[in-house]
Amino acid sequence: MTGCPAPLQRAALARVTGLDAAEFGTRYWGRAPRLVRGADADAFRDLLDLDGVDELLSRRGLRTPFLRLARNGSVVDSSSFTGPGGVGAEIGDQVHEDKVAALFAEGTTVVLQALHRTWPAVIDFAVALSEELGHPVQANAYVTPPSSRGFSAHYDVHDVFVLQLAGRKHWTVHAPVHPDPLRDQPWNAHATAVAARARDEKPVIDTVMEPGDVMYLPRGWLHAATALGDVSAHLTVGVHVVTRFALVEALTALVAHDEQLRASLPLGIDVADPAQLAPHVDAVRAALAAALDRVSADDVARRVRGRVWAGGRPEPVRPVAVATFVEHLAAGDGVRRRAGLRYRLVHQGEQVVLALPDRQITLPAATEAAVRALTSGGTCSVGSLPGMDEADQVVLVRRLLREGVLVPATHE
Known about the structure:
By secondary structure, the protein is of the alpha+beta class.
């Protein structure tokens, strides 16, 4: 193995949309639902199946909030299915699978939350999809008893990809009553309008999803689902989209450096009186416009990236395996950037700075070409990096492995 071959072609987004990124982005992203019929009923068994659901519920020691139950559109109190963990597990909220089984038999929907943190195949898929989308991703599984509805018509404040895993489920989708909702604008704030649209208007999509089918829904689109016949399970991959309002929030935070905008209002002012407030509003508008002109795109990017980068996690690192690999690192060993790792490499004088979600790594400028090769996404061979001799390459790669930037090329 020599050099740093190009990374493998991205495939997670195409897998759930049937389109390349450019076409999906132009026609559907944030605009309209897309329903894709699967040619293979087992298309997503590698991600999760019903046996995997049972394993999570019975043998993985789940605790709240990694499990949620719902019935008749309402969330079930967790005290009805959790309890002490027993000897050696001094906790009080471990899932009791026998209680879950009883509730499931009575028609309760099981929601396995945050599978992007607990189930290996979903972790890998979520990391890959997030890297392609550029937005943080989460994943929940919904397992519904026969002919049961888990949640009434509602909308989500994030985009979703619905992957049907098992059984059949009848879905109805209606146009938004509040398009492009923000995180603090949940559906229950528009509950009356949501209920009326779902009840009185013809759905945009009215279909039965079967194993292998996928549906994309932008945030704000109303949806409800009912299981048909046997047990039904689907995986909902939620995309926590970064909005233009995130830029507004960043700009607002950055203009706090302006003294005029931090000035106190006059003593005794009645802020409930529009007439008293009006001249100050005008003054703030003028000062705000001037302050905004002084905010650079670099400043906004640093502010926004901190929030976005903190919203997701890159692929897991195997601490023992990596430590062993580092100890015996030698020329010819293959490494690659940790999938999903958010970073930015900036040249600053005699140094290069590798900015990560939680810290910065400062390196000599002479390492820049090698670091760019290592973070490109392809597999690199120690000893063939540009601009450095073999001994220095080993030192650099060893450090980046210990910092969690790189992983062995065989890392799983």
